[in-house]
Structures are given as C-alpha cells and as structure tokens.
C-alpha cells in the first residue's frame, strides 16, 4: 500500500527542477583544483609539439633549415608543409568553405602563422628546438587595412586563389575580395532614404578583439595503431563536428575516431574552429605511434586563433521629423584576415548580422556585407557573438543614438517610439527573420524606472552647466541599449555547418533504482550544463536533479549534436532534453496505469508520480515505475526506460534585454568609472536564475573589456601590438563594477519549455551600453561618433578634440 503523498509543492521543491537556484554541481571539482582539462592529461610515452611561427605578416619562404633542431637531443620530428603535402594535409578546409594553410606553403600571410611543427620529448625541448629552426623569409608588401586591400594595386594575398573569381559564397570581384552578401530591398531602401525628412549617416567601427579564454586551445592526439583507433582529447566546442571533419580530411573511418572534450576552461567561440595544431598533432601521432600533446601559450592564442569582430559598418537611417524610423541601409566591410575561417552556418557568410534592424519596426531595409582578406589572423566569429549579432546590435544601437542627435530627441523616447509592438509578434523583419516573440515596452519601462532615468537626465544637465562654469571636470554619461538577440541555430532547413544540419540531441537512460544518466550533443565550457540540463529533466520526469548525471563531450557515447556556441544549447539541446523527458514520461504513464490496473487515460501526472484520477491515495512514483520497467514490464512492451530525441527547432529564439550604464568620465585624464550598471534580460522561461545571473555578470564584464580598452591592434606592417596580457586588457576585480540584474519573462512559443538562450546576451547588450555611455557624456559638447575601444587615451582625445581642455 502506498502512503499519502507529501504536499505537491514540497515534492516539487525537492526535485530542484525548472526555476530552482540549484548550486552548480561542477563547482565541487573546479573549486578544489580537481578539474580535468586537456593539459592535465598525461599519457604514457606522450610527446609535445610546438610551432615555429612567422615573425612577418606577409613574406615568401625561401628555405627552412631544421637540421640543428633535429640534432637536438630529445627532438623526435620536425614537420613542414613539404611533409604534409604528400598526405594532402598541408591545407585544410575552414568552416566557411575557404581553405587554410596548416603549415606555411611557400609563403606566410599573417604574423604568428604556423610555419613548422616540432615534436619533442618535453615541452621545453620543443621550445628550444623551435629557436634552432632557420627560416629564410623574403618580405612582401603588407596590407592590414581592408579598404586598402581592395585597391587595384593592392598586393595579392591569396595566390592559391589566383584568377579564381568564384568563392564559397558567390562571385569575387577583386583578388582580396571573399564574398558579397546582400539582404533586403535595395531599391526600396534607396527610395525611402532619398525622400526622408531626416537621414543620419555614420561609419560605425567595431574593432578587432579576442575571446582570450583562460585556458588556451590544445589537444592530445593518440593513434592506437593496433586497433586503428584515433582518440583526440581537445578543447572542442563541437566534438562531433570535429570527428566528422577529421574523418573527411584524414580518410580514417568515422567510427575509428573518438573525440573527447574534457573540462574546458572557457571557450567563448575561440574553440569552435579547426586549428593547424590539431592536424599537426594527429599527423605527428600517426607518424610517431605515440600520443602527441599540443597546448598554446598565451601569445600563440592571442596572435593566431579565432579573433572577434573587425567590422566596418557604414549606416544610413531615415526617419520622419517626429522620429518614426522609415528605413535602414547598411554596408559592412568585414576584415576576415588571411583565410575565411568564420564559424558561421554555411548559408550565412556574415552570420546573423541581418538582425541589424534590432528591436525596431523598420519597414524597409537593405544590407550588404563584403568580406575581405588582409594580412591578419583568421577567425571573426567568436566571443559571445551569436554569429555577428553583437556587431549588429552595436550598429543599430549606435545608429539610434546618432539619429536621436540629428532629431534633437531623447534616445530613450526614440527607442520606445519605434519598438516592435507586442501584438506584432511573430514579427517578420525587413531583412528576413521571423521574431518568435517579444514584449519590449514593459521591459524598457522597468529599466528606465529602475535607474531613475528622468532624474539622471536632470542631473546630467546640471552637470553640464557646472562643467561649463568650471566647477567640475567630471562628465556624466547615460548609456542606453535595447537589444534583440537571435539564438538557437537552428532550423535544419536554413542552418547547417558544412552540410551538417544544426539539430541537437539528448539520450536518457533511467536506472532501475530511479536515478538516471542523460547524454547530450552539446559541451559545456563553463556554462553549467551538468546543473541546468538535469533541472529540465527533473521537471519533465519527476526524478530529482541530484539523481541525474549529465554527460557531454565524448563522441563514443554522446548522441550526435552540433555542439555549444551561438547560445544554442538551451534552445536546441535543451528542447531535445525536454522532448526526451516527455518520451520517458509517456512510457512511464503506460507502466503506471498497467500496475494500477486502470486505463492509461485514468492516471494523471503529479510532480513525480502518476495518480489515479479521483483517487489520490492510489499512485505510482517515478522510482517505482523505473524499477517495474526492469521487471514487470507490460507484456509486449520492451523492458527498460530509455529515450532519445533529436530536435530540429522550428525557429530560432529571440531573447531581448534592456541595459543601462551610468558612467562618470574625467575630461582631463580620460579615466572613467561605472556608477551603475543595470541589466534586464528576458530569456523566456528561466531554468536556473543563479546561472543566468552568472552568465550576465561574466558577459557584461567581457563587454566592459571590449568597449573600454581591449583590442587586437596591428601596426602598418602587420605586427600584433597587443599579443600579451601586458597590452591586452583583461578586467580584474578592480575594474569590474557592481551589476544590478533584472528580468522579464516572455516564453518562446515554440520551445517545449519556453526557454531562450542567454549566454551571449550580456555581451550583445553590454558593449553598446558602455559605448553609448561614453558617447552620451560628450553629446552635450557635440560628439556624434567615436570608435571603440574607449581607453583612457582615446577618451582624453575626444575631450581634447571637442576643445574641452581649454
Ligand atoms: N540558461 C537558463 N535559462 C535560460 C537560458 C539559459 O538557466 N532560459 C542556462 C543554461 O541552462 C546554461 C547557461 O544558462 O547553463 C547558458 O545557456 P545558453 O544560453 O543556452 O548558452 P550555451 O549553453 O549554448 O552556451 C554558449 C554561450 C556562448 S555561445 C558563449 S560564446 C559563452 C557563453 O555561453 N561562452 C562561455 N557563456 C560562457 N560562460 C562560460 N563560463 N564560459 C564560456 O566559454
Ligand atoms: Cu560567437 S562565440 Mo559563442 O557562439 O561560442
């Protein structure tokens, strides 16, 4: 006989399901130094690889002399392009349909490019051997400016493409041109802009930066020649895709390749692409027959792996006199560096930049993006970017400010006037997206009220007067942002990477005693998946989250999935998890009804059990059902309780948010301090509010870094000027302000639990909030547009150029 159930609320709380501030289960091992990162892996006989990298940004390689290096005791092998060429591995395909040199093939195209790979008995010998390799370079003219790269007489960078005027994304019109991508209606937009009351035009530059994860990229490749099995442990954000690509380029059958992503110390998009280090380690392991480890140092990582942004965005925005936006025109010059290695869905060479109409109902728009080669490192899609959404949000949120100046209007009011209204969702934008849901005005009102917007404006006006009277040297900036994200790539009908549809997956196995393991096609890099995905399952299956193990990252055991980036884990794998949970529950219902000797329809779900309708004392708990499924299964029904779901979402999800930054700026020193930062996020149903807050704190801090100082800067001959943490700004606790987080909840109508992604939102919304605060402080003195990063010197320069230094 069953006893009476404890109250529903009590049982629900015990599950730690949706909405619970469940503590991160990962942290017990991380905080005790028991994480298991790639560099912690030590295999018997393991060798170490290191690269000879180019000191030049553009040079021909006349010769490579590795004799002295090979003679160094402990050096096992030195690989150059010549060694890889017979295997067809001296070049590799990029995720963007371009190809990239694995090791310099006749020339180098950016500083830090991989030239030769040394394999030695330890890391130090490998580094010493790198120094002994003599490379004879002949310098070539360098181009680091994407506009100069398109001049008729610009040096030819990609000689391998010589005369090839058809690229992966259509025709190329110049030897350094990669693609043109157009969206929207050009003619209609020209007409609207030509006849508008007011047009604001501006060049908005989002500078080149770098995700700089604490753990750099690396791998351990291990070829087991006896079994013919290749195992690669690595810092991979998309392990299954790596397996498929590795199989295609190496010719090793896919079932004989096992990719394992262990704990990852931050990815931020830096670990999506395929790097020469992976290929060289694999080849070296095949050649030597022992495992080979390669792990970047900080300079390697900053100079050669996936950078972020570098978008020159020319914009025109048209409006009526009273501020109703009528059209948006945008032309982007996208600096992709030496190879197009952007990790975008294949059909989107500029990612989802066509969300650049933002949160506004803009009836007419046109967008063109030109990708260009320069002598810089490849990459471009990384750093909490949501596939270029961060550039798009920066663009529109700057253009709105510029338009507000032109109209002489308050920028908060201009935004509100143009929001897509709640009853317009689902909303089809002029550039092609269908926004699934949104409710902007209440979020905006809440944000403005929370910071006391009207009072802030009054204070700012008083401050300006005081400044003019010479009573203060401090200015006050109010940085506004309202952003709309697009995450959850995505529908297989329009999103694939190299032909692999971007679905995701979850496989659940319930054990006889009622605990469970679930495996997913995604991989956490710090986002806390082991905590949150168990919460989804707890709510769906009635098994406490604490009794569910979440496993990701081993391609031998996890179901196929496209990995974690683009904040897609919750929208796609999270949906798969809920759907798989529902399959478990459907079978559990049959078993419960069978055991209770009633019809399936006569039992109902109650938190963690099925109860006979109208007879609450008669029920079967999930625990009982699990055990029964391994024993008195229903005749004719398979024993066990397992389910798998491969989920192809019908649409992306569209999280949004309102961020406001209040900043004090010293006009004489360019120093800034953040007085207040308010971040309101709407990511639909919230799985774990504490994890969301952590994501927002981290992402806003990265946004602060990007807006206020961080950059990958090159000099005119292509030297990386910011290749170490001496020059590359990483905020510490000292620079990081207090953040106030807030939320509204607008569930996604198509996601099984209504959740939208959140991982990248704080970067998407944060950067324009900080940058707009700087601009806003100087708006009363005539500033319209100043490029990021807003470091002390550049802010000082703004004040200087506006004549504020007397
Ligand atoms: N979450 C939630 N409720 C929601 C949405 C999300 O509780 N409605 C939780 C999720 O369950 C998950 C976390 O928030 O634990 C982030 O979920 P999601 O937004 O789906 O993003 P992903 O898990 O796909 O993570 C990718 C995203 C990206 S693309 C970058 S870049 C980034 C980011 O996450 N890199 C990170 N945040 C990071 N955080 C850390 N610590 N390290 C990184 O490398
Ligand atoms: Cu674009 S950075 Mo995240 O998608 O890994």
TrEMBL record:
Say which species the protein is native to: Amorphus orientalis
Any one GO molecular function term:
carbon-monoxide oxygenase activity
Q: Where is the Aldehyde oxidase/xanthine dehydrogenase a/b hammerhead domain?
A: 32-141
Q: Which reaction does it catalyse?
A: CO + a quinone + H2O = a quinol + CO2
Output this protein's name. Carbon monoxide dehydrogenase large chain
Where does the source fall among the domains of life? Answer: Bacteria
- Transmembrane portions of the chain: none
Extract the InterPro entries matched here: Ald_Oxase/Xan_DH_a/b, Ald_Oxase/Xan_DH_a/b_sf, Ald_Oxase/xanthine_DH-like, AldOxase/xan_DH_MoCoBD1, AldOxase/xan_DH_MoCoBD2, AldOxase/xan_DH_Mopterin-bd_sf, CO_Mo_DH_lsu
**UniProt cross-references to Pfam families, sorted A to Z:** Ald_Xan_dh_C (PF01315), MoCoBD_1 (PF02738), MoCoBD_2 (PF20256)
């Amino acid at each position: 006989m069953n006893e009476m159930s404890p109250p529903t609320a009590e049982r629900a709380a015990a599950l730690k399901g949706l909405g619970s501030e469940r503590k991160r289960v990962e942290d017990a091992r991380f905080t005790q130094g028991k994480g298991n990162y790639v560099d912690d892996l030590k295999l018997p006989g393991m060798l170490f690889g290191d690269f000879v990298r180019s000191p030049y940004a553009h040079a021909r390689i006349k010769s490579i002399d590795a004799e002295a290096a090979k003679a160094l005791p402990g050096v096992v092998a030195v690989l150059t392009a010549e060694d890889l060429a017979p295997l067809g591995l001296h070049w590799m395909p990029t995720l963007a349909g371009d190809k990239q040199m694995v090791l310099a093939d006749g020339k180098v195209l950016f500083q830090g490019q991989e030239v030769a790979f040394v394999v030695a008995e330890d890391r130090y010998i490998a580094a010493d051997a790198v120094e002994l390799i003599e490379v004879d370079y002949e310098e070539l003219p360098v181009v680091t400016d994407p506009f100069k790269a398109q001049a008729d007489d610009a040096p030819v960078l990609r000689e391998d493409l010589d005369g090839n005027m058809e690229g992966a994304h259509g025709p190329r019109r110049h030897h350094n041109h990669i693609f043109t991508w157009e969206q929207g209606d050009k003619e209609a937009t020209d007409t609207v802009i030509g006849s508008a009351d007011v047009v604001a035009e501006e060049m908005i530059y989002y500078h080149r930066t770098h995700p700089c994860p604490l753990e750099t990229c690396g791998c351990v490749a291990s070829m087991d020649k006896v079994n013919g099995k290749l195992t690669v442990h690595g810092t991979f954000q998309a392990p299954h895709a790596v397996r498929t690509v590795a199989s295609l380029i190496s010719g090793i059958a896919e079932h004989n390749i096992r990719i394992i992503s262990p704990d990852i110390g931050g990815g931020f998009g830096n670990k999506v692409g395929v790097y020469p280090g992976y290929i060289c380690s694999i080849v070296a392991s095949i050649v030597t027959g022992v495992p080979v480890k390669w792990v970047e140092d900080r300079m390697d990582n900053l100079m050669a792996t996936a950078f972020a942004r570098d978008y020159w965005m020319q914009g025109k925005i048209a409006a009526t006199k009273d501020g109703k936006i009528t059209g948006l025109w945008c032309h982007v010059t996208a600096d992709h560096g030496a190879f197009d290695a952007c990790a975008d869905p294949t059909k989107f060479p500029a990612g989802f930049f066509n969300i650049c109409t933002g949160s506004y109902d803009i009836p007419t728009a046109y967008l063109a993006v030109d990708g260009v080669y320069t002598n810089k490192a490849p990459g471009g899609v990384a750093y909490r970017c949501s596939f270029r959404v961060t550039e798009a949000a920066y663009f529109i949120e700057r253009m709105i400010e510029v338009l507000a100046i032109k109209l002489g209007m308050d920028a908060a009011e201009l935004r509100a006037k143009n929001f897509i209204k709640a009853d317009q969702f689902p909303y089809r934008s002029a550039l092609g997206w269908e926004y699934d849901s949104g409710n902007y005005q209440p979020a905006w009102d809440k944000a403005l009220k929370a910071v006391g917007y009207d009072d802030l404006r009054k204070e700012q006006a008083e401050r300006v007067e005081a400044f003019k009277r010479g009573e203060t040297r401090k200015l006050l900036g109010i940085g506004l942002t309202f952003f709309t994200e697009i995450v959850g790539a995505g529908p297989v009908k329009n999103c694939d990477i190299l032909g692999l549809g971007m679905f995701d997956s979850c496989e659940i196995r319930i054990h006889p005693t009622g605990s469970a393991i679930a495996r997913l096609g995604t991989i956490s890099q710090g986002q806390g998946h082991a905590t949150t995905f168990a919460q989804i399952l707890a709510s769906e299956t009635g098994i406490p989250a604490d009794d569910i193990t979440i496993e990701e990252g081993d391609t031998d055991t996890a179901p196929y999935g496209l990995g974690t980036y683009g904040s897609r884990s919750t929208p796609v794998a999270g949906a798969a998890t809920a759907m798989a949970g529902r399959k478990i529950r459907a079978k559990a219902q049959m078993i419960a009804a069978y055991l209770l000797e009633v019809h399936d329809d006569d039992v109902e779900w109650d938190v963690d059990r099925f109860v006979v309708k109208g007879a609450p004392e008669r029920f079967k708990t999930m625990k009982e059902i699990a055990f029964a499924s391994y024993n008195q299964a229903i005749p004719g029904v398979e024993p066990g309780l397992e389910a798998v779901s491969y989920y192809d979402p019908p649409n992306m999800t569209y999280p949004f948010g309102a961020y406001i930054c209040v900043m004090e700026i010293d006009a004489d020193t360019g120093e800034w301090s953040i007085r207040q930062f308010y971040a309101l996020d709407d990511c639909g149903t919230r799985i774990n509010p504490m994890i969301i807050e952590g994501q927002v704190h981290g992402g806003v801090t990265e946004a602060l870094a990007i807006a206020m100082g961080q950059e990958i800067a090159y000099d005119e001959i292509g030297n990386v000027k910011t290749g170490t943490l001496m020059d590359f700004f990483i905020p510490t606790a000292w620079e990081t302000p207090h953040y106030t987080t807030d939320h509204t909840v607008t569930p996604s109508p198509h996601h099984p639990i209504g959740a939208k992604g959140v991982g990248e939102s704080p970067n998407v919304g944060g950067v324009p909030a900080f940058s707009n605060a700087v601009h806003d402080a100087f708006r009363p003195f005539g500033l319209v547009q100043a490029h990021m990063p807003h470091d002390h010197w550049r802010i000082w320069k703004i004040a200087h150029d506006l004549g504020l230094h007397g």
